[in-house]
Amino acid sequence: MYGMTSVAIHSTGLMQAPKLRLLPKEGSSAGRADAKRPALRLLNGSKPHKQPVLLAGGDADARAGVMHDLATTMPQNTIFEQAGAIWEVLVRAPQCSMVVLSGELEEIPAESLMQMLVHRSPELPVVCLDAAEPHGLDRAASAQTVQAVAQ
Q1: Which of 25, 29, 97, 105 shows a CA-CA span of 20 to 30 A to 73?
Q2: Is the pLDDT of residue 133 over 50?
């Protein structure tokens, strides 16, 4: 093993350097400065962009079936996005209203991906339909579960 040597150099250069300070203009007062600022107001107009529901799974056919079921049970104005790769899920999930996992992605079980997403974004609702199927729930029941989580 090699020994490590550390050297500390003391310098008063930073202490002697000039410092910037924000000073009011000559002759101006705080009251006049505030009077010149525009008023903050709410605008009526376009509504904020609605966050999509992210549907993720490695099997495109399974995603399509789940999306069909969700589209029939969720509100008509629900926007859906799909992801078939882990990187897509990790990048898109924070901008979505919820994530629905329909199966494994790139040989990683949906349960593991769900736990990863919950760890990264604790407030993000994540539903794993792959875990529900062994317990006897069909796709329609799974879609109703997702709808309940979305509300």
Answers
A1: 105
A2: no
